[in-house]
Amino acid sequence: MNVESYMIELGRAARAAARVLARAETRQKDAALTAMAAAIERQADRLLAANARDLEAAQAAGLSAALIDRLTLSEKTIAAMAEGLRQIAQLPDPVGEITDLKYRPSGIQVGRMRVPLGVIGIIYEARPNVTADAAGLCLKSGNAAILRGGSEAIHSNQAIAACVRAGLEAAGLPATCVQVVETADRAAVGQLITMKEYVDVIVPRGGKGLIERVTAEARVPVIKHLHGNCHVYVDDRADPDKALRIVENAKTQRYGTCNTAESLLIARGVAEALLPGLARMLTRHGVELRCCPQAMHILQQADIPGARLVPATEADWSEEYLAPILAVKVVEGLEAAIEHINTYGSQHTDAIVTEDYGRARRFLREVDSSSVMVNASTRFADGFEYGLGAEIGISTDKIHARGPVGLEGLTSQKWVVLGDGHVRV
Amino acid sequence: MNVESYMIELGRAARAAARVLARAETRQKDAALTAMAAAIERQADRLLAANARDLEAAQAAGLSAALIDRLTLSEKTIAAMAEGLRQIAQLPDPVGEITDLKYRPSGIQVGRMRVPLGVIGIIYEARPNVTADAAGLCLKSGNAAILRGGSEAIHSNQAIAACVRAGLEAAGLPATCVQVVETADRAAVGQLITMKEYVDVIVPRGGKGLIERVTAEARVPVIKHLHGNCHVYVDDRADPDKALRIVENAKTQRYGTCNTAESLLIARGVAEALLPGLARMLTRHGVELRCCPQAMHILQQADIPGARLVPATEADWSEEYLAPILAVKVVEGLEAAIEHINTYGSQHTDAIVTEDYGRARRFLREVDSSSVMVNASTRFADGFEYGLGAEIGISTDKIHARGPVGLEGLTSQKWVVLGDGHVRV
After folding, report:
1. A226 near A208, Cβ under 8 Å?
2. Cβ–Cβ of A113/B364 closer than 8 Å?
3. B175 against B221, higher pLDDT
4. Is A368 an 8 Å CB contact of chain B?
5. Confidence grade of residue B227 (pLDDT, cut at 50, 70, 90)
């Protein structure tokens, strides 16, 4: 069988399973999630054995240490996968929720009911735990899933998929509710992202290369997160202590995450007063500073021991370093900060540090990003921190879902109309 | 200048205008809407003169009477356009609304703010009133608009666009908030629907051909309404009187609208009792019935004078007649009705007539359409009837917006985070 017909077969099966899932009761979905978790724990040895095969192949192929790290399962990560599924089981079921049911002048009641999207395609790279995680989120939100993991994780993913299937069957749901693509052929992705009849949305999870490729070729809608160039703007009415704490946390708590700050903007009025202290703190963390001429001038005057100061180029304002590097720019004030963020930012997460009520209010309204913050670290942009319980990813798009996407982002709303023989006049 | 650079220029201007509009105050947008309405009334003679030029060309080109009808402006339609803009001014501003602002365990407050999508491209056919209507809805929702009407309406659209611009300028907003494409070159559409950097969403309004073409070629997300094959299912626990009233209204109130019923499903248990009465009523309205064998058998026995009974083919179950024709099928019961609707329907609007609580509940949950109704006519599926105030169209998609799309459907939500120096631990 060729890849195209194989994928269409998966698509058909997913479409049929989606219909069953859409009307499945909450307790049945939760039972499946709990059974999946139990199967993963029970089969921990098999998962480790399958993972060992992938790791062996990865080493033989000379894959990078970082990639091998992401690929590796341990007893701890296996326990975390099971725990993640149990947590999803505990979340409220979004499906079927009716909101805003109101009487209209015609006498009908009109409201909205939350419903699954249908079939979700997830395309991801090395991390095998995404298999369990994505399966759980799709299931709970009533969607059938077609999962396409990285070819380097194929044995691990298939072993996890077997546990997922066991859980579904134990709860009396079709095993086809979650299907893992079992071919490493790249054409499978091409087919998955273009077969509109069978797939309602694609969620790519991985590096920028993957996401750009998927977005360029997809004919199915994509919920995507391209990159994160997050800003902290220190206003001239910032509390210096909060500025220090927030910049430190936003930049240095973790360097590799998409909600890490990559650019610091500081108002001219406080640049001389605050920038040296900020730079000292960042230098202690080993952060290199890519400075605009004004920032460079101030920091050279400050003569900070060990400071790594590099002149910023135009490219620095758009860069997602994912590393101990921070772009630093002195701006005139709020207006210039907003303009800079809306021009160079990635519409991910941006924060202002200010005690000024009116400026906070303007920043929230005028910065066009999926998360806008006042006096809080950009690192908070996260499904768990926002109370979504779990996230399938972060969207930097505007259509359908923005920011952290949880169960609700995997659903839609239909209209419900209740009458008693009402007709339109 | 070639079409591509012309469109890119419109796109750039729209992007810049969108930034201004996103932060415009409600009263400024409302002032612009009111000024547009006044300009349209003031310039009624010019609009009629421009329209006369289009009509002359249309007649010379031998366009159909239906098309010429849609193209024609009158004093009445001009007054309705102005009134429509004033009504949009009265609607609450969706932009900036913050909902669900809650404290999280970390101490931050997290909520969502409604924001414009950015730049909206509207592609439509003969009706020039869409120019005013779409401009008004985009403006109120804080979006810049690029409008591409039918080439046959080009003079009318430009005359309306001049009034729109006058209104924007009177309120101190950039005239580029609403731009009308001034070339009849078809390549303009191709460029509009693929320039992702400048356009956030496309709303095609028109016939199925237009919508299919736009959807097939678009690289920008499309909010679309493909077709409406709406069903009324008369359950065996239906109130006969309500069934009669609802079927009559859903089928015969207007034949050409997308929320008109095109298929009648009736439970076997009541088919003999109710179908003849329904057929008599429909025959009085001159509706032809495309019957399944069982329905045909019952109706032939009933011997209804003047009844036009035609055996249904498989194609009839999917057809959108937009005419006095109704497909009629006897089904086993609720389960078969839901299965039929989910298989042949267009996910537009479907209604059940029943007094049975449990079946009503199942129908609402399990029918996968943008509007699902109990004991109400499908004709209610409409932005005004649902209380949206106005609609830009009806979406049969699941992503972003389903069913009637009003101002809210032209917006998105970003996350707002309020802290007081909070950092993530």
Report:
1. yes
2. yes
3. B175
4. yes
5. confident
Between CA B425 and CA B418 the distance in angstroms is: 17
What per-residue confidence (pLDDT) applies to B225? Answer: 78
User: Residue B390: pLDDT band by 50, 70, 90 thresholds?
Assistant: confident
Q: Report strand pairing: B349-353 vs B230-234.
A: parallel
Distant-in-sequence contacts of B340-344, Cβ < 8 A, 24+ apart: B340/B231, B340/B265, B341/B231, B341/B233, B341/B265, B341/B367, B341/B369, B342/A19, B342/B366, B342/B367, B342/B368, B343/B317, B344/B229, B344/B263, B344/B317, B344/B318
User: For A282-340, what is each residue's pLDDT tens digit?
Assistant: 999 999 999 999 999 999 999 999 999 999 999 999 999 999 999 999 999 999 999 99
Q: Which residues pair with A330 in a beta bridge?
A: A266
Please tell me if residue B417 touches chain A, with a CB cutoff of 8 Å: yes
Q: Smallest CA–CA separation between A410 and chain B, in Å?
A: 9
Which site among B414, B418, B420, B425 would you substitute to test the A interface, given the most A Cβ atoms closer than 10 Å to its Cβ? B414
Cα B275 to the center of its chain, rounded Å: 32
Return the amino acid letter for A232: V
Cβ–Cβ below 8 Å for B402 and A424: no
CA distance B250 to chain A (A): 8
Choose the closest CB to A375 out of B22, B376, B420: B420
Instruction: Using an 8 Å CB-CB cutoff, list chain A residues near B352.
Output: none
Inter-chain contact B108–A380, Cβ cutoff 8 Å? yes
Enter the tokens of residue B362: 């199942």
* Residue-wise burial string across B2-27, b where 16 or more C-beta atoms lie within 10 A, e elsewhere: ebeebbbebbebbbebbbbbbbbeee
Assigned token pair, B217:
């070629």
Q: What whole-number distance in Å separates Cα of residue A291 and Cα of residue A299?
A: 9
Six token digits for residue A226: 């391209």
pLDDT in tens, A225-250: 778 999 999 999 999 999 999 999 99
> Is residue A395 within 8 angstroms of chain B, CB to CB?
no
**Is some CB atom of chain A closer than 8 A to the CB atom of B404?**
yes
User: Is B253 in Cβ contact with A374 (below 8 Å)?
Assistant: no
Q: Is A419's CB within 8 Å of B241's CB? A: no
- Mutation choice for A interface testing from B219, B222, B260, B380 by most A CBs within 10 A: B380
Q: Specify the pairing of strand B393-395 against strand B288-291.
A: unpaired
pLDDT class for B206, splitting at 50, 70, 90? confident
- Residue A15: alpha-carbon gap to chain centroid: 25
Q: pLDDT-derived band of residue B66, with 50, 70 and 90 as boundaries?
A: confident
Q: Which of B248, B372, B398 is facing A412, going by the closest CB pair?
A: B398
Cβ atoms of A234 and A251 within 8 Å: the answer is no
Radius of gyration of chain B (CA): 24
Q: Do B414 and A108 touch (CB under 8 A)?
A: no
